[in-house]
Amino acid sequence: MAKMPETTFADLSLADKTSVKKSNLEARRFSDVSTCSFSSGSSDEDEASPKDITQRNSNGSSDFCVKNIGKAGFGRREIEIAEQEMPGIMTLRKRAMEDKPLKNANIVGCTHVNAQTAVLIETLQKLGASVRWAACNIYSTQNAVAAALAEAGVPIYAWRGETEEEFWWCLDKCIHSEGWQPNMILDDGGDATHLMLKKYPDYFKSIKGIVEESLTGVHRLYQMSKAGKLTVPAINVNDSVTKNKFDTYYTCRDSILDSLKRTTDIMFGGKQVVVCGYGDVGKGCAQALRGQGCIVYITEVDPICALQAAMDGYRVVRLPEVIRNVDVVVTATGNKNVVTRDHMNRMKNGCIVCNMGHSCSEIDVSSLHTPELIWERVRSQVDHIIWPDGKMIILLAEGRLVNLSCSTISSFVVSVASSTQALALIELYSAPGRYKSDVYLLPKKMDEYVASLHLATFDAHLTELTDAQAKFLGLSKAGPFKANYYRY
Length: 488
Ligand SMILES: NC(=O)c1ccc[n+]([C@@H]2O[C@H](COP(=O)([O-])OP(=O)(O)OC[C@H]3O[C@@H](n4cnc5c(N)ncnc54)[C@H](O)[C@@H]3O)[C@@H](O)[C@H]2O)c1
Hints:
This protein is of the alpha/beta class.
């Protein structure tokens, strides 16, 4: 990891940002997390590829490729709804609109295309950037939202259900355009960076920086850096504290209940649940389930996390001890074969089994594909697996991440991630020379700033350090308030 240079955009104190910037500013928001949100634009499926049809927006521009420009009105409403729940990025938009910190920035973006990212895209434009945008996932685009962006003049090349060939075509249209050359990349998975390196390596001469959102993309950047192939600075936003904490603990705390409810209509009160793994994901799940009146057991391999669970008031058990009695099993370990066929043989009738961890190997689903077991698809993402004696277990999302398969990610969480991305872009764009060709974490002060942007929503008021207190702690009154190794 490269060391951060001393002064950064965030060196302005939070107080400064709200006072200095107020005068300027008042005058002026998942892995490879696949935040697939299919809430709109799903009825406009037809056979012709958008690539083969020329559409125009009301201004006559055809520099976009979406499923159906006629759905722009629906998409605009989706964007407006998202804006309501994205206070941080909207505040950033308002505060920095006059300054235009991204003036003359030409950003090529490759992210999920949904209502929440539309709020980010339009914010970047309001901060002065010119953007061209493609989807990072062939299934996650909200077609109506893409149409709304196209109608608003954004050169967007994205629709749900692109083929792989169409995916690369869309990305190419964004990177390479007559009379426009990118100088910044906002990537989610590393594909824009990868294509540019492969097809347009010369463009890197004018690239000022890459901002990468996903674990996979960040991994690729570190590999490039190690191999000496990274020729521009990059910021890893995946590992910034705010993004990380919100994407794991809070998102999972919110979405485990929603996922279980939507798929099974379960009443939580009094149910016995075992959560395997007590990291951030497990902690969020356990807290939410207990809050609804469930009796929660935890399994852990790490004594520190096990002690945390015990002191949080959970029974820490081995899975075989409780497997006959529990109503729900949630895996959250990132490990493999945590729930085995033997465990599933012993589960009681009606037991719900689901996975919140990244890998789909936590539950040994393949062991359930044997001739004596009957699989019955009862709802989308819900399978009943029936044993010869009539016992049935309920498997959700075939053992894949249940919340990403059966629930949605809240706009508020995306607001945090988007604010982080926008600030990282501003940082790299406005501080040329400050960063070398390496991968950096977002400066701590910016992480703190992102959090501060979201506090007003809760009418939360920060306590200010007195001069004497700041001196006592050896801190600047304006932060950063914690060392980089602090774990929150
Ligand atoms: N569903 C989501 O939205 C979402 C969000 C973020 C992360 N994730 C994924 O969830 C998984 C967990 O993430 P995390 O941040 O909590 O990780 P973590 O490493 O902090 O926690 C996982 C815990 O599981 C424990 N563990 C490992 N093997 C075990 C076993 N066999 N039995 C019991 N416990 C075991 C580990 O000791 C650890 O404490 C990862 O795969 C991560 O990628 C999912």
